[in-house]
Amino acid sequence: MNLVTTGDSLTRAAKNIRIELKHAFPGVTFSVKSKRFSMGDDITIHWTDGPTGKAVNHIVGKYEAGSFDGMVDLYTYAHSEFTNLYGDAKYIMTTRHYSDSAIQDAITEIAAKWDDNPVTWTADDFNMGRLYVRNPSRHCDDYQHLIYGVLGVRDFTQTVQAQAA
User: Fold this and answer.
1) Which residues, including other chains, have CB under 8 Å from residue 77's CB and lie 6 or more apart?
2) At how many degrees (to 10) do helices 143-153 and 100-114 cross?
3) Which of the four, 6, 9, 23, 157, has the lowest number of CB atoms within 10 Å?
């Protein structure tokens, strides 16, 4: 894996993130976009199913230029040899989306565990937020949060790779 060392810092970081994600998760399609704005820049990364957010953040986090402390309203830069060579962005944001089939699988799993009635919920119900009002017991979250919990920890990388083949 050959990372890019030429060009401005933001462009290098975006290119290198694409390279690393493609290498780590072959077959998964990532959208990596960079943007400049007053007082900084950012890189946003989107994908559907595939690896968990934690796995992606583990790879892309090293390209962040520093961190923001909201308590004192201060961004602190943390330059390193890595970011000097391979680039950085002030903010790096990741968003994982879920396919309807992944959502439906999670709904089926949660319904089997928490509901005595046959499953009549759909991925559309989840996407429209209709499951926030259902509370399976007073000791746990509504169904919407339970489904998010299942989706958030599930790794769909092999499923995505199989579909791409």
Assistant:
1) 65, 66
2) 120
3) 6
CA distance 112 to 49: 22
Contact present, 66 and 76 (Cβ < 8 Å):
yes
Tokens 């946003």, located at residue: 44
- Helix, strand, coil shares, percent, the chain, to 5: 45, 20, 35
Token pair for 165:
């083949």
- Do 87 and 12 contact (CB within 8 A), yes or no? yes
Alpha-carbon span 43 to 14, nearest angstrom? 7
The pLDDT tens digits of the residues spanning 78-104 come to: 989 999 999 999 999 999 999 999 999
| Helices 9-24/53-60 angle, 10° precision | 140
Terminal Cα-to-Cα distance of the chain (whole angstroms): 22
